[in-house]
Amino acid sequence: MVEEVYDVSKEIVTGVRLRNVKSDQVWDQEVDGFFLAIGHIPNTKVFKGQIETDPDGYILSKGGARTNIAGVFHAGDVQDRTYRQAITASGAGCMAAIEAERFLESEGL
Ligand SMILES: Cc1cc2nc3c(=O)[nH]c(=O)nc-3n(C[C@H](O)[C@H](O)[C@H](O)COP(=O)(O)OP(=O)(O)OC[C@H]3O[C@@H](n4cnc5c(N)ncnc54)[C@H](O)[C@@H]3O)c2cc1C
Predict the structure, then answer these.
(1) Does the CB atom of residue 1 touch ligand 1 within 6 A?
(2) Which protein residue has the closest C-alpha to ligand 1 atom 33?
(3) What architecture (CATH level 2) is domain 45-106?
(4) What is the pLDDT along the chain (109 residues), one digit of tens a residue?
(5) Exposed/middle/buried for 95, CB within 10 Å: 0-12, 13-18, 19+?
(6) Is 81 near ligand 1, meaning CB less than 6 Å away?
(7) What is the pTM of this model?
């Protein structure tokens, strides 16, 4: 965990103070720059117990855009742990829409 970024007041970055959250060890590390990555948690809590996910909460694909529930399809960041980009999410949305249409047709709806 980053506890402090050094020399921001001088409008430069010279180092960071780091803490190992498991061992509580603290140390200073010289660095030339600092980029913050916020991470990603798929927003699938609402489906818990219904749609199958992996241990991190990403929906498990059953091929194409299919989930474990017939007629329920996945698209975007809730299933994609690799790319997580707007363009891949929109492509996945198109796939899900086509599969949904075919599902409805196959059900005579
Ligand atoms: C800071 C940041 C920067 C990014 N920069 C880029 C970039 O430069 N280029 C790029 O390609 N991608 C970028 N991405 C990634 C991109 O935004 C996502 O990959 C994309 O938006 C995923 O689309 P999605 O439809 O899966 O999810 P989202 O866009 O998150 O859409 C999900 C929608 O569902 C709604 N929702 C959630 N829960 C419920 C509910 N219970 N009921 C009804 N609606 C609900 C939400 O309000 C939201 O509108 C960035 C993401 C972040 C966070």
Answers:
(1) no
(2) 43
(3) 3-Layer(bba) Sandwich (3.50)
(4) 999 999 999 999 999 999 999 999 999 999 999 998 888 899 999 999 999 999 999 999 999 999 999 999 999 999 999 999 999 999 999 999 999 999 999 999 8
(5) middle
(6) no
(7) 0.80
